[in-house]
Amino acid sequence: MNNLIKINIDHFPNSEFKLANGQVDYITGWAFCIGHRIKFLNIIIDDIKKSVFHYGEPRPDIIKQYNSNGITKIDNCNIGFTTLLEIPDKVGKYSVFLESIIENGESVINEIHKINVTDYDNLYYSIMKKIPDSEVCICMATFNPNINLFKKQIESIKYQTFIDWTCIINDDGSDLDCYLKMNDIISTDQRFHIFKNPNNLGFYRNFEKCLQFVPPLTKYVALSDQDDYWHTKKLEKLLELIKRKKSSLAYSDVRIVDAEGKVLHTSYWNWRKNNFTDPVALWLANTVTGSTSIFNRDLLNIVLPFPIKISPMYHDWWIALSAICSDGISYEPYALHDYTQHGNNIIGYQGGSLNKPNKIGLKPRIKKSILNFNNDVLRLFLIAKTLHKRLPNSKTARKLSRIFPNNSPSLMHILLKIPFLIKGMLRRRLTVKAEERLLFSIFCMYIAKIYFSNKKYIGFDFFKTNKSANISSIDQLNYSISQITLKCAKITFNLNTNNETVINLVIPTIYFSIIFGGYLGKFALASRFLDMGYKVRILIIDKCIFDLELWKSLSINYSALNRIFDETEIINCYDRNIAVDIGPNHRFIATTWWTAIVIGESLKKYCFPPFLYLIQEFEPLTFNNGSWHAMASSSYYYPHVAIFSTSSLMEYFQQHRIGVFSNSMPVKYFVFNNAISKFKPSLAIAEKRIQKKLLIYLRPESHASRNLCELSLISLNQAILEGAFADQPWEFWGIGSSSLGNQISLACGKIITLLPKMNLSEYEKCLTNFDLGISLMYTPHPSLVPIEMCSAGLICITTIYENKTESELLQISKNFIPAEPIITSIVSAIKMGVVRSFDYRSRIENAKLSWPTDWKVSFSDSLMKDVVYSLGLNN
Length: 875
What we know:
- The structure is a single chain.
- By secondary structure, the protein is of the alpha/beta class.
- Helices cover 33% and strands 22% of the residues.
- The chain has 32 helices and 34 strands.
- The two termini are 44 Å apart.
């Protein structure tokens, strides 16, 4: 049964933990059993078994991939799971197991992760000793503050009537000029102490680090923003309040001002009701602003370390919850400082009405609610569980932890056992409708579960959405930064003394929906190294469904993959913290721009020869000018030997002095032509075809913009309007992407029918059924699809590009009609193509190309010997 269980972890917990009280992480992923249904899942660590928090999240994307092989058939999409992982409170190494309980009662246990809990050592103790003790320690987290506002804030702290304080400023990597100015501003008062993070942590972790510097004899801790203004008696009044009430935390009202100090609102609570007594309402929506608060230093024993961050997560919300579960919170209704509200606030005062119209429709709102289910529910559950672990004797913490059950909450449970959700309408000004959003999110998830339990909807892309919709600019920026960082993170290599020669092919992923020309080239090169007797390993660095059995079953239709899954070792390197063994005779092949960066950076500290860079595209062209474009360009300047797909691509690099043709490295390169599919166009069949057929290659995705999808459709529409297809009935078909639906409307009532995704053999049979092809390519190489259209007997309209000239394309095949990448030129080429499509004999004759159809010809024996020699290996 174990080999029938398929498991994938999307979010792993951390691998390393310092011993601390009440640490909780989370795991998300999916699991299913071929031929049987899994009733429920358990998570096991340190011999303690607990039910997963939620099993049954719809994952049609995964089931669609598994069902596409024609062998595996799964009739239920509800295979996703989310669970918390309670970290053991003792030092040791632990394995994490997932137990699957099958419908027949059988139990299957799989190890999914390992964690290591080590002794706590305060790395910041030496810093703490440098900071003098005082009754109050003010903690300020900064990042590129407005210097004028920062100076104003510092001055306001200096002039407090209460003077027994120190102020720790922890800077999160501000620009050097800004950091030096900050140092200059505080230099006249020795009570200020400033430190700087080597790397940007973000405001949440920056505040956590700042709090770790607080000296042990400090009695109270106050939080400060970088650009507010404290009234002179702020500390005095808050100290008086917290001592009199004997609470864990005290906070005050504030005035809302703009950057010039103009008062916008005299109170923070103009439109929303304040709350510091209802723990459930505070759990749902924070009301305690960190910069207004002061708290007992003892609270740091509960607060630190901060919980795992599930965006959005805020330090002041966590501190306030810890306080209300301890000795409570007290409030000063008098405004004790001016809160500066401007566009750069991470979060702050948001004035307005609860009844603003919802700007998104019902269907997008449902989709968003389903996608946010884990984010909202998991964050609340993790916080409640962490509080209960750290405060086991607190009735308040226990109450919060019991709001959700320990396993999947049913819809009936939501309706009957969570009274605060039903009461939400009565306190919507207190929680800003948080109950309604949460209830709607849970309700939508259960509707989706019912929806996707129906076989009819397997594979239906209900979750497809515009990722940029309703996402703030800062969120988009942070997402982009995290993606670049994740893609280019170094592999952890462990260099040993094993002298075995191994070829390491580094690829992004294995996903059979994209196994065409470029990917086949990667695997074909690996196969040729196998032919020469070398051991080959494939290192996968992006997230993927790592399933060797599935890959083997899908590879039977691809001759280039016949040996890959039987004769190579495949290693999942997505988790860069897991060490990969390498020896002195290992060699590396990069296959994309980010694999080149990963190899280049990972090998910097070792003395390896230059890696082999398989270059099948000038990849910066897949991005607009910007960070991604710059990163892709940088990949060509790591020490490497280049192997170019087509001489025209090589010539482009040569003309522009890129990579091996720059002056920064030796000129070492090779050229090959990718093998194309074998086609057998028939003159007799082409002449008998009554209905003429046009095939247009469309790739609307942003990463495929070089295929000029919009320009292709505009030009085809214009050609139709100008009567190019008026004299003969034509059918219009599309290929290349499933994201456009089933049909595209054209001018004059014409329609493009989009072909479904097909495997390689289906593609080879399909292509010869067409007469005219449009496959534009705004790149320096000819691309495989246009060449294959010519080889299948189609007249093919494609575009020229710099050194990819008309004469070069016509040398490949006379079936090409090259055009400038402008509408008038493409329209003229389409008109010419319509006429030439009737010259069947010429089309079939020009389909005979001197282009390889066998990868052993592409990567010939002589070429491979030269490649091996360039890598410093002896064949």
